[in-house]
Each structure stands twice: as structure tokens, then as C-alpha cells.
Amino acid sequence: MLAKEDIGIDDELARLPLRELGAGFDLLAGTRVLDLTTSIAGPYATMLLADMGAEVIKIERPGAGDDTRSWGPPFLHGESLWYLSVNRNKRSVTLDMLSEPGRRVFDDLLEKSDVVILNQPPKTAKKLGLDAASLRARKPDIVYVSITGFGLEGARADWTCYDLIAEGYSGIMDLTGDQDSSAQKIGAPAADMLAGQDAAFGTVAALFDRLRTGRGHVVEVSLVESMTRFLACRIVPFLGSGVPITRSGGKDSVIAIYQTFETADEPMTLALGNDAIWSRFWRALGRPDMIDNPDYATNEGRRAHRERLVEEIQRILIEKPRSHWLQFLASIRVPAGPINSVDQVVRDEALLERGLFYRLRGEHEVPQVGTGIRMDGRSNGPRLAPPRLGADTDAVLGDILGYRDEEISRLRDQAAI
Is residue 276 classed as helix, strand or coil in its secondary structure? Predict the structure, then answer.
């Protein structure tokens, strides 16, 4: 029976394309990753690695597991949908890292792994014996990946951090929203997702170098730095010009016409991003005067007259509905688009055809957002559903470590697993 929080499941889940579990990308096959992370950034990083074929073993606390397992509602089949969003293609092992027998199991797994990823502040990691120096002493060629709020060194190194805090530090909140509004958080955990991508990218780079040199590496990613790097195209112009950067509600850019506009019914986006697109736009509208006017010949000139140009374009677009303009602009190769809500995005036929949204069949059917990367003309496929807490403990200890059934039973009696 579905919980009350499982609202809309019949409509929203059933209409998604069904993907059976099977073979996915195998570019990282043979790489084993120990995932000690929780929440979003770390699990997203390890899911990206798993999507590319790595074997990811998710180490979780007995009885509790990843923090996101309790993030809800909404829940689906008793699992948090936040958890389900970033944990496919992994196996879950419950392990009490604070117990002596549990730590021995971890050390055995470490010996047979290539990568360990954690998101503990450095002081906590050192207290648990999970700092880079401790783990590399046991396995010198391990790729050690740390995801923290502020990095492994410096005055802020041991401060706790979440996506919200990182967004505030980075400057992105100050640039998000209308000019007269207060600062706003981005509508998704952007710092977490960017840091996760950075961690996955750094891991692959470190593994590539290890193939050449045999050396392990310490990969260090911080939420604040990943989020701040995202602002490079706003920060560098400020540093080079001294001109303050302010929020404008998406109605200003270095490109003169690059914003939202109203139509006869729904708003849309329009980007006249270069001189050729500018000319195509006005030629198709039968307005050669806008092309021939020397004041508008370059982006610099258009920026100088931006207010007048925006007013003229708005006067034209308001006369017809958005669907007309999107079809018309696509036909003349002028970038434009809708402003979709989430329920509209997941119904986008082009994205569905490319395999970005689907439901996978495991113990239960669960919705997923795909890798978003195609290889050799095909989208990725899921190998494993997001695991139930501890679902793979016995199999991992038996298959990888060769533990006998009685050894596993003893560990369970000791509450180590």
C-alpha cells in the first residue's frame, strides 16, 4: 500500500519509459569505490562513477544509513525520493566503523579497493582514522577523495557546511532573483551537485594518472569552491573591470538581448547571442532597418541602446502566443525557449526520447533522472536499483572478502554489521 506521501505516483511514474536492469556503461569496470559519504554531494559523485561502470560499495551506519534516507516526505515504497535520486548502481553494506570488528572489515575492503570517498571534516576524519595519511599508510596507491564545505586546510576547514551555506559564501545567492528582491537560493542543491561532479571528475583524473605512474592521489573538493567556480564568468569581468555585478532577474547580460519576454499568453526566453542571429531575427520579421542601423551593428552598440531594443522586441512578442514564437524562431535558427516548471520538464518528449527520465524495475519501480551523457550514440542504462539499507552486506563480505557464513553471523552478533 502506498503512503499518503506517495501522491501522484500512478500518474507520474507510470507514464515514464520503463528501463529494465541490465548492462550500462562499463568504462570504469574493474574500479572499486568505497563510498563513505552521506547526503547529496558525495552520493552524487559516486553515482556518476557507478553510472560509468565503477563498482560502488556504499558503507552505511547500521540502523540509520545515509542521512537522506530520512529526508521526506515524499517517500516511495518507504524510501526517501531524495535518497533514490542519487544512489542507483550501488551496493549497500552496513558497518559500524566505530567498533573494532567493523573497522577490521573496512580495512579488508580498503585493501581490495581503488578509491575511497568521504565527506567528513578533516578533524573528524582524523579522529576516526579516515584521514588521507592514515588510509594511504595502509594502501599507498589508493585514490582518496574528500568532499567538505571549505577544504582540508585553513581556518574554516572543520566548519560544518550545507548547500545553503555554500551558496551564500559563493556569491550566487546575491546574483539570483529580481533586482529589487532579497537574495535567493537556487531552486536545487547546486553546490552539492557541482561538488559531486568535481569529485567524480577529479577521481577519474587521478585514476588515469595512477594507470601511468602507479601513484595514488588525494583529491580535495569543497562545496564553497565548486559553487564559487560556477561564477567564473561573473567574477572575472568584475576583477578585470571593477564594475559591480548585481542581480537583475535574468534580464541583463553581457549579451544585449538575453532575457525573458512576455508573449500573448506565456513567458519565454530569447537569446540574440551574436551579430548573425541578430540579423536573422530582424530579417525574418521584415525589419531591415534594425539590421542597417549602425547603432545596433555590434553587441556593444546594442548594449548602449538596450532599453530601447528590449521595449521594441517586447512590443512585437506580446502580439502572439508563445507557441507561435517558438515555432517561428526555431525555423530561423534563433535561440528561444519556454520557461518550464518541473512537471513540464519531465514531460518533454525530446528529453524522454533521449533517455533522460525513466522508471527502473527493481524490487519496486522507481523514477530516475539519467546520466545525461551519451556514449557512442546511446544513453546509459541502470545496472542496479538504489539499494535498501544493508541489502548487500552478506554478498559483499562473502564475494569480495571471502568471509564464511559463520564469520558474517559473528559480526552480526557483535553488531558490527
Answer: helix
- Is the overall model pTM greater than 0.90, yes or no? yes
For the ranges 1-5, 281-285, 293-297, the lowest mean pLDDT is seen at 1-5
State the pairing for strand pair 268-271/32-35: unpaired
CA distances from 46 to 52, 118, 390 (A): 10, 10, 17
Residue in 352, 379, 356, 380 with CA at minimum distance from that of residue 368:
356
Q: Would you call 411 exposed, middle or buried from its count of C-beta atoms within 10 A (0-12, 13-18, 19+)?
A: buried
Would you please indicate which residues are annotated as catalytic (active-site) residues? 192
> Which residue in 150, 158, 157, 230 sits closest to 190, CA to CA?
230
The residue behind cell 581503488 is 114
Give dist(CA 6, CA 312) in Å, integer. Answer: 47
245 by Cβ neighbours in 10 Å (0-12 / 13-18 / 19+) ranks as: middle
User: How far apart, in whole angstroms, are the C-alpha atoms of residue 218 and residue 133?
Assistant: 9
The CA distance from 359 to 76, in Å, is 13
The answer to whether the CB of 199 falls within 8 A of the CB of 210 is no
Band (12; pLDDT cuts 50, 70, 90): confident
Taking the C-alpha atoms of residue 85 and residue 216, their distance in angstroms, rounded to an integer, is 30
Cα within 13 Å of Cα(1), Cβ side: 2
Q: Give yes or no for a contact between 112 and 31, defined as CB atoms under 8 angstroms apart.
A: no
Residue located via cell numbers 530582424: 282
Residue 69 DSSP code: G
Q: Do 269 and 259 form a contact (C-beta atoms < 8 A)?
A: yes
Q: What are the Cα distances from residue 359, in Å, to 38, 340, 349, 408?
A: 24, 21, 15, 34
Copy the grid coordinates of residue 136.
594511504
Per-residue pLDDT at 6 exceeds 60: no
pLDDT band at 290, cuts 50/70/90?
very high
Distance CA 256, CA 299 (A): 6
